[in-house]
Amino acid sequence: MTQFRGAFTALVTPMKDTGEADCDGFRRLIEFQITEGIDGIVPLGTTGENPTLDEDEEDKLIETAVKTAGGKIPVIVGTGSNDTKHMVMYTERAKKMGADAALVVTPYYNKPNDDGLLRHFEAAAKVGIPIIVYNIASRTGRNIQTPLMEKISRIPGIIGVKESSGDINQMGDVIRDVAMPRKAEGKDFWVLSGDDSFTLPLAALGGDGVISVISNLLPTKVKAMTKAALEGKFDEARKIHYELIPFMKAAFIETNPVPIKQALAWAGLPAGPARLPLGKLSPASETVLRKAMVDLGILKS
Q: Which architecture, in CATH terms, is 6-235?
């Protein structure tokens, strides 16, 4: 059984100057992640700009991710949609193309009730690939409260949650009231932070790691911090956490993935611009981001 514990990178999708998805650059980013020791990759998520990718591009990106990973690390493909029929289709594609798991976001815009959400994730699980729920109310308008998450966790094939509620109390409740009982019953239920700044506190509460944005650029650091925290070496984890905090904040100074793509470009890694409707980073935000990178020694002042 694949382990979904540790540091996973929510991969950006590099773009060419012509506006096309850069599959060669994408391959190079994955090779960089593997070389730097990351525990897994998550293509076609929010950071990968999946709402603006067409299906041909998605096919090529999934193929590139699975082939490049080559079984060395798990590939968790974002397959969410606000339409259950399309989500199932995307999840079936991920399974067929060899993904290890699918990340399924709470349906956005529709704001489904509890019955609709439960049935949505039941439909995902029926595809027959491990499903990680992605709970991010700031983008979807709908938070999955812990009692509903508990019901969802009982669906065979649902193996965890990417918790991006931004509420450490809710994260703790999910660990205590959902993950711990499932694991006591012998069922996998991994709780991964969807926010870099919550990686350490989530691990301290008994969580399983992070799906990280900043690890696009700093996989070794994020992996080291996560590993230390999961092993209970909190002095070591705390030191790295505080070292990375300014860059964590700078990476979200504007809408993700605009800052992290700029940071990658400055560092000489494949990135390209974000697609519209995401615009360029403002000069004021560039100053903050650059300073954070200089302080980490990534850029010269």
A: Alpha-Beta Barrel (3.20)
